[in-house]
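Quick one, T. Sequence first:
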Amino acid sequence: MKTIYQNLVEHFGGQVATAKALSVSQANISGYVAGRWNMSEKVAIRAERVTNGKFKATDLCPSLREFQALTI
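Structure tokens:
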């Protein structure tokens, strides 16, 4: 089963295209896919916007889920 980051890369057609769409380096994308680090809140929100909500920021960055729960 693919991770959400793998699905995000597939959505954009590759790591380089994903990096460009999210205004981050390809190395960052590689790190997300490999599980070396999590996506930041800012990049996760950007990803939700550029995918028109197909990928939710709260799914890409679990700390946002906790923040969202505190604000409801």
